[in-house]
Amino acid sequence: MKTAALFALLPACAVASDILSIAFRAKDATELHRVIRSNNHLDYGCKPVIVRSEGEHKLHALVSSDQLATLKRSLDPSLVQIDTMDHINKRQEATAPIGKGDRFKGGKVAPRGLGSRKRGEQVNLGPILNVDEVYSAMKALEKEYDIDMFTAPFKTYEGQIVVGGVADGDKKKDKKGKKDKKGKKKDAQHIFFTSGIHARERGGPDNLIYFISDLLYANEHRTGLTYGKKSYTHAQVKKVLSAGIVFIPLTNPDGVRHDQANSNLWRKNRNPASAIPGNDLSVGVDLNRNFDFLWNFTKYFDPSVDPASTNPASQAFYGTAPFSEPETRNYRWVYDAFPKISWFVDIHSAAGTLLYSWGDDVNQSNDPKQNLFNPAYDGKRGPVEDSVYKEYISEEDWYNVALQANRTTAAMVAAGGREYIPQQAVGLYPTSGASDDWAFSRWHKDKSVTKVYGYTLEFGYATNFYPTSEEYVQNIIDTNAGFMEFVLSAIEIGLKH
Ligand SMILES: [Zn+2]
């Protein structure tokens, strides 16, 4: 992109140009835990990810040049080294633009995905969908394919609505007689997909909108779907729809609107309730630390780890109570409205991994007493190197959740050729209050609800939240193959656990 065009896209207040992508390196992972502990205001992406590579450990973060200077002064270079990777700034010049106007004409023109195109057909999807286009794409899908849409009950701080849909192979007009009093058939939806909870993770809503568009198009036109080197038959399309998919493409519209307007890598929602006057970064809650899963981390976790933050200026600020935010309450409402949901994926970027339960500590299947509801272990959860506490998961559940992650990532790799790694969500560092863990924990708390296997899918490359146009298209191909495989595997493993 020409420089002039770039400046047209980035408003004067953009701060992304002062943001550097860095990697901390250390022989000993506990040194990196110490970095997180003493710098919990830094931006570590969706969660701090410590990876082992070639005899050392690495931790990615986004920092300003001032923060980098402070870090360099405070860290002992014999223990922790810092690599500065300037690719974020270089990539910034090639960042895919955000759409202007409304390509779906207020719902008159239906979106069409990449998988349903004829072999060799040249397709230009155009820029990333803006927030209004996500709403009009949903209207257009309802009009074109006659599917059920819903408005979640809780409006955002800025008064925006959160909309979702149901793709289950049935048309509204076919369902007459089968509906309950409220007009919805609510007993046959087993899959739940969401995206856009972290505002800056560009392309997440697009991945989902285009996938659903493909499914509905292929269903109607009796075709299959092809994503890169992965192809699925028409029968498989029918099968996937029969599992019943509930989808919300944009769960945090306030945050996404703010990020798209300012290109400032905004992650949280826009609730100012805990904001510190004069500090713009203290607006908003990290919605993916706000779910009722060990939310009050200072009580539940070992003091040596920070699975979230109590500081409103942190990217991981947990809010004022579990489900304090309308956006997270909308997630909770979906499980009540569609009580048979048993598989859930929250779509994020940017890492290239599919995370399965649990995210608070290392899994174990030997001691059911070591579980998140047992107060005897309060203050002990989190450290992954110790054996003081590990989170209980039954052998069968562990096998199932890992099998699904292996199959889905294998399909994504086969489609696009880049790496996606299946792994337990805790990795080498814990999180609290996340959507996937909360979804799985519901049944552990109350055996009368349907057990949900919850996942976090991280598309894209480490800390690269704004894809180039080329990466944007590749992400759609990779994730859409992953979604097909995920639902097919879910059916095979079982829609009831
Ligand atoms: Zn995220």
UniProtKB/TrEMBL annotation:
PROSITE patterns: PEPTIDASE_M14. Residues 97-118, 168-187 are annotated as: Disordered. Gene3D superfamilies: Zn peptidases. The active site is at residue 458. Residues 127-490 form the Peptidase M14 domain. Belongs to the peptidase M14 family. SMART domains: Zn_pept. This is Zinc carboxypeptidase A 1. The keyword tRNA processing does not apply. GO terms for biological process: proteolysis. GO terms for molecular function: metallocarboxypeptidase activity; zinc ion binding.
